[in-house]
C-alpha cells in the first residue's frame, strides 16, 4: 500500500486543522475533499455535508453494514457514522438525543434526514409490529413533502416549513413510535409564487394524477392551468418532478399511515377548496362593494371546521382589492389548518401506546441563517431561530464539557467564546426586546405603521451594540442602510432587515378591527387581515388565525413563534446534541462544482468557524487510554509494537515522547485530554499512516520471504514521511 503525501494533506476532522482560525484553510480542505467526492467532514462530532448534486455510491446497504456499530472516528466521515453513533450513545447511556440538521435552501437537509431515517430503518431490529411503525415513519416523508414542499428557484423540492421529528426507541433499541412538530409553514405560497416557482406539490399531484371519479367528486378538472392559484409561477411542468407518479406514492403513503377513506376525502376536499377559492372572482360595484360567496369553495372545510354551518362571507364596504385579499387570507388560513391537521393525524398514527420506558432521537431540519432574499419578517424569525439554536449549542456543549471534566477528575477551566445571549435578549426579552416592541406597536390604538415601529426600536435599542439603523448609524455605515431598515449584528454576521411593506395603507389598525368583526360569524375560523399589498413587519406580525377572539389582543406571529421556539428549546435542552451542517456547493445545482464564494458565505453564516473555536477551546481532544495507545503506539519506540504495562502509563510515555508540554495535556481517570496543538495535527496524520503501516506490516508477515524486503522498504519510506 502506497501512502502519498497528498492523502495526508486533507483532514477528515477540522479540529485537527492547524490553521483553525483561517477561513481560507477551512475552505481549502473542504474543496479538496469535495473534488474527491468526499462530501463529509467532521468538526469533532459535528458533520459537515457539501451537496454534490450527483448520485454517489455511498448510500448502499453495504455501506450501511460497514458503519453499523463501528467507532465514530474509525471510518471516513459519513452521515451513517453519525446516525450510528447517536443510536449507540442512546442505547449505552439510555439518554435522549437530537440531531440538528441545518443549512440554506437546497443544501441537502431533507436528503440528510431521509438518509438517517433509512439507516435506522435498516439497522434497527425488526418485527411485524415494529415494521409498521418503521413504514409509517418512512411514509410520513412523502406525505409531508407533498403538502409542505414546493419547487423554488433554489430547489425543486424545497421544504417550506421547519420540521422536528422524534423517533422513540424502547430499551432494546427497537423503534416504537414517533412524533412530528412543524414550524413556520410558508402559507403565502398558496396564493402567490414567484416566477419560476410552484405552489405546494400536492395541488399538481391531485390535478395531474387524481382519478377521474375523485376529480369529478371534488368538482375539479384535469388541467392545472385552470386554477388561478397556480398561474403566477407559470411553471406547472418541471423535468425533475413527476406529479402523476408522486400522486401514487402519496396515496400509498397515506394508506400505510392509516388514513381512512373519510380522512382522505376531507383532505383532498380541502385542497380542492383552496383551488376553487383561487378561482373565486368578485363583482365590485361603483361604490366599491364586493361580495365573496364561498359556499362551493368551502364545502369541505365546513365539514371539518364548522360541521353543519353554512358559510357565506360577505365583504363590505370594501373594494375588490380587499375582497381578493380576504379570499387569499382565507385560502392561506385553510391550508395552514389543513397542514396542522395532517401533522396531527400522522402523529396519531405514530403514537406509541406502550407506556414502557422510551429514549428518543430527534431530527430537527430547519433553515440556516437567511441573508440572500428580501430581508423581511420571515428571515427575521428564521435568523432569530438560528440565534437561539446557537445559544443552545453553546449551553449544551459547554455543559457536556464541564460534566466530562468533572467525571474525569480534571479541573474545569473557563472557555473563551462569544456568548450570543446578548443578541437573543435583544430579540426576545419581555417588554424590552424587538418582538415585544413589535407586539406593542401592533396592538396599540392609533395609527401604527412600520416606521413608527422602527422609531420605537430606535428609542429602546438606541445604544445596543448589536443594533443599528440609518438614523443611529455613523456616516460610513449609513451608506449601506435605507431609512426603513434596521441591522442586527448576529453571531454569524450582520443582517439588514427591511421593516416597511411595499405599499402602505394609512389606517391599518382601524381596518383590522373592522375586518375582525366582519369575520366573527365564521365559527372557529376567525382571522383578521390587513391590506393586501402591505407586507411590512406590522402586517406580517398581525397575519393571525385564532380559534378564539380573546387571544387576538395578546399575541403576534413573532410572539407565537418565540413561544414555539421556547417549547422546542425545552425539548432539546433535555437531550444530547449532534449536528449536521449542510452546505450548497453551487447555485446552479451543477454536479461537482465548488463555488468558493458561496461556500465561504455559508461557512460564515452557519457559524462553522465559531463552532470550531468552541470545540477547540479547553482540552478539546480526548480519547480513552486504550484507544489512544492502539492508534498511536507506532509513534514511540517504547510503545511499539506492544505496551505491556498499564495503558495510561503507556499513553503518558507516548505523549512525552511526542514532545507535549505538561500544560498541553491532562491525564483523566479513563482518558487523556489534549489541547489542540500543532503536534497533535502531526500525530493524527501519523495515525492515519500508522494504521496503514500496520496493515502493511501484516502484509509483510504474510508474504513469502522474497517479497519481504520490498515491503519493508515501502514501510520505511512511510516512516520517513511521518518524521
Ligand atoms: N447527499 C446528497 N447526494 C446527492 N444529491 C444530493 C444530496 N443532498 C442533496 N442532494 C441534491 O440536492 C437537492 C436538494 O436537497 P434537499 O432537498 O435535501 O435540500 P434542503 O436543504 O432540504 O432544501 P430546502 O431548505 O429548500 O428544503 C436534492 O433534491 C438532491 O438532488
Automatic annotation (TrEMBL):
This is Myosin IH. It is found in: Cytoplasm, Cell cortex. Belongs to the TRAFAC class myosin-kinesin ATPase superfamily. Myosin family. It comes from Cyprinus carpio carpio. Keywords: Actin-binding, ATP-binding, Motor protein, Myosin, Nucleotide-binding, Repeat. GO terms for biological process: actin filament organization; actin filament-based movement; endocytosis; system development. ATP binds at residues 103-110. It holds the Pfam family Myosin_head. InterPro entries: Kinesin_motor_dom_sf, Myosin_head_motor_dom-like, MYSc_Myo1, P-loop_NTPase. Residues 10-688 form the Myosin motor domain. GO terms for molecular function: actin filament binding; ATP binding; microfilament motor activity. One of its GO terms (cellular component) is myosin complex. The lineage of its organism: Eukaryota, Metazoa, Chordata, Craniata, Vertebrata. PANTHER family: MYOSIN, UNCONVENTIONAL MYOSIN-IH ISOFORM X1. Residues 565-587 are annotated as: Actin-binding.
Amino acid at each position: 500500500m502506497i501512502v502519498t503525501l497528498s492523502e495526508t494533506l486533507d483532514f477528515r476532522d477540522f479540529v485537527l486543522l492547524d490553521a483553525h482560525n483561517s477561513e481560507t484553510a477551512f475552505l481549502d480542505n473542504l474543496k479538496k475533499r469535495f473534488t474527491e467526492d468526499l462530501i463529509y467532514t467532521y468538526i469533532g462530532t459535528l458533520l459537515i455535508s457539501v451537496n454534490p448534486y450527483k448520485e454517489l455510491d455511498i448510500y448502499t446497504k453495504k455501506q450501511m453494514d460497514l458503519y453499523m456499530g463501528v467507532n465514530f472516528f474509525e471510518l471516513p466521515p459519513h452521515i451513517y457514522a453519525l446516525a450510528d453513533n447517536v443510536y449507540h450513545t442512546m442505547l449505552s447511556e439510555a439518554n435522549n438525543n437530537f440531531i440538528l440538521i441545518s443549512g440554506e435552501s437546497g443544501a441537502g437537509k431533507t436528503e440528510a434526514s431521509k438518509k438517517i431515517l433509512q439507516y435506522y430503518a435498516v439497522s434497527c431490529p425488526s418485527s411485524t409490529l415494529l415494521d409498521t411503525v418503521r413504514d409509517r415513519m418512512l411514509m410520513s416523508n412523502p406525505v409531508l413533502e407533498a403538502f409542505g414542499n414546493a419547487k423554488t428557484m433554489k430547489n425543486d423540492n424545497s421544504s417550506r416549513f421547519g420540521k422536528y421529528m422524534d423517533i422513540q426507541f424502547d430499551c432494546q433499541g427497537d423503534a416504537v413510535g414517533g412524533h412530528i412538530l412543524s414550524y413556520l409553514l410558508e402559507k403565502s405560497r398558496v396564493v402567490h409564487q414567484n416566477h419560476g416557482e410552484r405552489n405546494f406539490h400536492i395541488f399538481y399531484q391531485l390535478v395531474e394524477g387524481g382519478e377521474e371519479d375523485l376529480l369529478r367528486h371534488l368538482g375539479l378538472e384535469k388541467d392545472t392551468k385552470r386554477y388561478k392559484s397556480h398561474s403566477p409561477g407559470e411553471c406547472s411542468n418541471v423535468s425533475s418532478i413527476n406529479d402523476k407518479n408522486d400522486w401514487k406514492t402519496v396515496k400509498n403513503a397515506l394508506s400505510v399511515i392509516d388514513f381512512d377513506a373519510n380522512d382522505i376525502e376531507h383532505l383532498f376536499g380541502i385542497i380542492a377548496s383552496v383551488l376553487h377559492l383561487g378561482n373565486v372572482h368578485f363583482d365590485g360595484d361603483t361604490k366599491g362593494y364586493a361580495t365573496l360567496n364561498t359556499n362551493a369553495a368551502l364545502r369541505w372545510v365546513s365539514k371539518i371546521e364548522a360541521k353543519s354551518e353554512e358559510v357565506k362571507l360577505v365583504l363590505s364596504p370594501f373594494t375588490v382589492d380587499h375582497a381578493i385579499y380576504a379570499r387569499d387570507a382565507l385560502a392561506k388560513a385553510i391550508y395552514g389548518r389543513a397542514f396542522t391537521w395532517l401533522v396531527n393525524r400522522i402523529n396519531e398514527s405514530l403514537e406509541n401506546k406502550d407506556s414502557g420506558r422510551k429514549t428518543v432521537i430527534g431530527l430537527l431540519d430547519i433553515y440556516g441563517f437567511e441573508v440572500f432574499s428580501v430581508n423581511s419578517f420571515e428571515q427575521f424569525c428564521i435568523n432569530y431561530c438560528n440565534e437561539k439554536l446557537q445559544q443552545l449549542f453553546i449551553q449544551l456543549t459547554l455543559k457536556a464539557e464541564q460534566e466530562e471534566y468533572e467525571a474525569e477528575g480534571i479541573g474545569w477551566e473557563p472557555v473563551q467564546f462569544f456568548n450570543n445571549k446578548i443578541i437573543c435578549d435583544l430579540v426576545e426579552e419581555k417588554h424590552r426586546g424587538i418582538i415585544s416592541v413589535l407586539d406593542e406597536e401592533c396592538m396599540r390604538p392609533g395609527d401604527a405603521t412600520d416606521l413608527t415601529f422602527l422609531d420605537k426600536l430606535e428609542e429602546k435599542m438606541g445604544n445596543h451594540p448589536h443594533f443599528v439603523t440609518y438614523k443611529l448609524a455613523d456616516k460610513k455605515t449609513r451608506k449601506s442602510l435605507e431609512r426603513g431598515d434596521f441591522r442586527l449584528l448576529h453571531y454569524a454576521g450582520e443582517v439588514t432587515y427591511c421593516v416597511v411593506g411595499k405599499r402602505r395603507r394609512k389606517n391599518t389598525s382601524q381596518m383590522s378591527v373592522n375586518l375582525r368583526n366582519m369575520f366573527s360569524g365564521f365559527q372557529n375560523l376567525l382571522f383578521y387581515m390587513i391590506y393586501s399589498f402591505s407586507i411590512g413587519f406590522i402586517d406580517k406580525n398581525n397575519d393571525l388565525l385564532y380559534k378564539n377572539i380573546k387571544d387576538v389582543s395578546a399575541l403576534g406571529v413573532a410572539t407565537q413563534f418565540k413561544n414555539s421556539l421556547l417549547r422546542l428549546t425545552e425539548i432539546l435542552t433535555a437531550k444530547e446534541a449532534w449536528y449536521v451542517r449542510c452546505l450548497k456547493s453551487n447555485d446552479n445545482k451543477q454536479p461537482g462544482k465548488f463555488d468558493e464564494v458561496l461556500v465561504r458565505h455559508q461557512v460564515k453564516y452557519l457559524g462553522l468557524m465559531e463552532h470550531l473555536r468552541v470545540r477547540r477551546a479547553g482540552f478539546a481532544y480526548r480519547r480513552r487510554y486504550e484507544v489512544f495507545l492502539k492508534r498511536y503506539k507506532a509513534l514511540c519506540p517504547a510503545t511499539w509494537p506492544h505496551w505491556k504495562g498499564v495503558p495510561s502509563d503507556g499513553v503518558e510515555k507516548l505523549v512525552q515522547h511526542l514532545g507535549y508540554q505538561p500544560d498541553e495535556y491532562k491525564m483523566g481517570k479513563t482518558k487523556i485530554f489534549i489541547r489542540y496543538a500543532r503536534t497533535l495535527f502531526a500525530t493524527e496524520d501519523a495515525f492515519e499512516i500508522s494504521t496503514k503501516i500496520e496493515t502493511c506490516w501484516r502484509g509483510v508477515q504474510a508474504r513469502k520471504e522474497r517479497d519481504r524486503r520490498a515491503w519493508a522498504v515501502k514501510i520505511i519510506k512511510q516512516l520517513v514521511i511521518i518524521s
